[in-house]
Amino acid sequence: MRALQHALAVLLLPGVVVVLVPAFIAWRTGSTVGSGLPVVLAGAAVLLGGVLLVIGSVFVVWTIALFVRMGRGTLAPWNPTSRLVVHGPYRHVRNPMISGVLFLLFGEAVLLGSVPLLVWFALVGAVNAIYLPLVEEPGLVRRYGEAYEQYRAHVPRWFPRRRPWDPDQATLAS
Fold it and tell me: What stretches of the chain show up as alpha helix (H) in DSSP?
């Protein structure tokens, strides 16, 4: 049952945002790899887009695995983690999953040379820039209290810390 919950959460959330909507946009606009670019630029777009897709995939898979293993929940708001996850990339930035999704969307836009996909990337980024501080973070404060407050005080929302945050050191320093 847990595997089904995780699969459903992944298919409905990042799956729709990163696969279904971009595929529809690419199909409707006729975007293809390196669309309309000279060969040299098309090659650069494929290389850069591929690198961005790999980076985004690593972050999305890594964060989902952490939610399963350490958070004991899914990425879905209807089945959230029961533990605050402050490991791996979460020690550098509060939203590595969204960062991964944005890397994927930007990679798709670059790979396909698609302005409509670039607009989709910007829209997803803007929606999350509004949603996270107004809805998700207050919910995390209610669910995890002081632990999340301390985490939020030490780990930036979007731009990663150079050194990983150590929650044990922060507790000792308080």
Answer: 2-10, 21-29, 39-66, 96-112, 115-131, 137-144, 146-154, 167-173
Structure tokens that stand for 122 in this block: 């910007």
Distance CA 133, CA 139 (A): 10
Structure tokens that stand for 169 in this block: 């050191």
C-alpha 132/C-alpha 112 separation (Å) is: 29
Residue 10 near residue 104, CB atoms below 8 Å: no
Residue 104, phi then psi, degrees to nearest 5: -60, -45
Between 166 and 74, the higher pLDDT residue = 166
- 19-56 in b/e form (b: 16+ CB < 10 A) is eebbeebbeeeebeebbeeeeeebeebbeebeebbebb
Report pLDDT digits (tens) over 14-27. Answer: 888 999 999 999 99
pLDDT greater than 60 at residue 167: yes
